[in-house]
């Protein structure tokens, strides 16, 4: 822990009851374009033409719902008892209730859904729910965020049983795409060096935050599974398996497992390292 910082033990009930004020956020078409570029849109590659509607301001990528909910780093509040320097973003899932407008206003609410205990060695797992409505209270999207609190295990909570998504091992992917990650200039979703996980980057490139990784994968999967039609996307869920950096090539491999559902993974071509694994997408035909 940093000098001058003091953290109390994790208080389960306090976090479950933590009050998050509703936040109204307005975004312009230019904001939506900036987010898209932060997800690598517009760079050379097989998605260059598919990116056009999201760079012209005509449409918004569904995955911009995630940065729209970005706000105060509330886990830094000493009252939470969270050792925020040891937070690991583990999983994320976006459910679309209707397409996001190209520009407009959203009302964001959230809550801590549950906290599980994996013991002092493995830490705790916190599940958050975030909700986006328009200003007429019409639901647009909801987001499930799973965070590992590595410094907060052993508080005596429920054990954690993650949902299992398996990729087919007996056949090649049904579809693949390779995508370039944002350059340093467009990397608006860099990970703060204050977060402990970023300390191991040290390769001359910036490590990307989970939101940047989620958005880049979302662009690719929207093309592979939904033919780049945002209105077809129902749910996108990822499990983070390793870091993603600026200026590298990601390969997405996708398998159709049943009508309206596919599973996928994403890995760094140059480093031959998994970045996302055991992920899934649900979509309308």
UniProtKB/TrEMBL annotation:
Molecular functions (GO terms): (3S)-3-hydroxyacyl-CoA dehydrogenase (NAD+) activity; 17-beta-hydroxysteroid dehydrogenase (NAD+) activity; enoyl-CoA hydratase activity
Domain Peroxisomal multifunctional enzyme type 2-like N-terminal, residue spans: 69-151
Gene Ontology BP term (one): fatty acid beta-oxidation
UniProt xrefs under PANTHER family: PEROXISOMAL MULTIFUNCTIONAL ENZYME TYPE 2 (PTHR13078:SF56), PEROXISOMAL MULTIFUNCTIONAL ENZYME TYPE 2-RELATED (PTHR13078)
Protein name, entry field: 3-alpha,7-alpha, 12-alpha-trihydroxy-5-beta-cholest-24-enoyl-CoA hydratase
Organism: Noviherbaspirillum saxi
């Amino acid at each position: 822990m940093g000098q001058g910082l003091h953290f109390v033990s994790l208080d389960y009930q306090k976090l479950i009851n933590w009050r998050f004020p509703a936040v109204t956020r307005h975004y312009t078409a230019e904001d939506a374009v900036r987010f898209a570029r932060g997800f690598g849109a517009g760079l050379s590659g097989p998605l260059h033409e598919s990116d056009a509607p999201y760079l012209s301001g005509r449409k918004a990528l569904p995955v911009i719902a995630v940065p729209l909910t970005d706000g105060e780093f509330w886990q830094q509040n000493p009252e939470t008892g969270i050792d925020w320097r040891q937070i690991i973003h583990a999983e994320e899932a976006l459910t679309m209730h209707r397409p996001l407008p190209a520009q407009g206003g959203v009302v964001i609410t959230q809550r801590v859904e549950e906290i599980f205990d994996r013991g002092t060695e493995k830490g705790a797992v916190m599940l958050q729910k975030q909700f986006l409505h328009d200003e007429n209270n019409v639901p647009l999207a909801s987001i499930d965020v799973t965070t590992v609190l590595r410094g907060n295990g052993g508080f005596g909570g429920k054990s954690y049983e993650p949902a299992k998504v398996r990729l087919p091992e007996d056949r090649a992917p049904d579809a693949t795409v390779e995508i370039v990650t944002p350059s340093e200039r467009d990397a608006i979703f860099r990970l703060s060096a204050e977060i402990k996980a970023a300390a191991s980057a040290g390769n001359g490139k910036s490590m990307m935050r989970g939101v940047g990784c989620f958005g880049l994968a979302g662009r690719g999967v929207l093309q592979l599974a939904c033919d780049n039609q945002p209105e077809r996307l129902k749910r996108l869920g990822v499990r983070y398996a390793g870091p993603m950096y600026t200026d590298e090539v990601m390969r997405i491999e996708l398998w159709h497992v049943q009508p309206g559902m596919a599973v996928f993974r994403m890995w760094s071509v140059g480093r031959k390292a998994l970045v996302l694994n055991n992920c899934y997408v649900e979509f309308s035909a």
